[in-house]
Amino acid sequence: EDYHCDQFIDCKNLSDESNDCASNYTVLFIVFGCITGFMILVCILLIGLVIVYGLILKYRRMKVASPTFLLILLVSTIIGYSSVYAWFGKPHPVACGFQPWILGLSTISMIAALCAKNFRIWRIFRYQNVKQRISDLDLLVLWFAMILPSLVILVVWTIVSTPTATMEDRGGEEHYVCTTGGFTGKPGGLIFFFILVGYIAIVLMFGVILSILTRKVPTMFNESKLLVISINHRVFFGCYHSSGDGNQPIPARYSAHYLIRIHSDSEKSSM
Predict the structure, then answer these.
(1) How many CB atoms are located within 10 Å of the residue 90 CB?
(2) To 10 degrees, the CA torsion angle through 165, 91, 261, 81?
(3) Is 176 helix (H, G, I), strand (E, B) or coil?
(4) Among 50, 106, 141, 67, which Cα is nearest to 230's?
(5) Among 241, 252, 203, 202, CA closest to 101
(6) Which of 167, 184, 156 is nearest to 100 (CA)?
(7) What is the pTM assigned to this prediction?
């Protein structure tokens, strides 16, 4: 009886948080799951439009925006949306382990893609009298270079302080929640979380500097506003959820709404 409507999902069928509770989690998960799924389909549609108008028909505006990196942004967006499902239902070791991966990588991938695009714009307009060609391949190398440290952090995090699910005391009651396991246990996960956040902050600062340096370039090429808005929102979202503690479903349902706002704003600005 004490476990009923306590905002911890202890039953796989969600009956402890659905029947006669103020918040029916079954309905909430269905609604937010459908909304998130719809937004993923929208992103897939946008991927098709980018391929047709950017890579095949090669429209000027789309070409200027760099179709390759628009595709990276959209794929990162889809992965970010998908991370919402990792918080659905009763905690599971696999879901807890995937939480920092799918959300952390999508966060840094989007920021790195925006930074790489602005880096090319900065280089071209900084040396306007010198003919330069910075290919998408060159930028992909830069993008991967920014992604690589986060991959290393996540790999070491998973090996040393493996996110898992187990029974823990919360408010005097035992609940099955996501927590830190591996060799270290607590607070190893929190330490790796702050290391990842610190690296994301470094990439963020690089992006902010680029946005300042490119603020006066022609409007068609200027994406500094998109960079500032998107990476700040993405970093805030990533910092809030990449810790992998996801032991209560309430943050997850707020994250779905927040994620939708972030990505919808980003995609409108990008296109």
Answers:
(1) 19
(2) 90
(3) strand
(4) 106
(5) 241
(6) 156
(7) 0.76
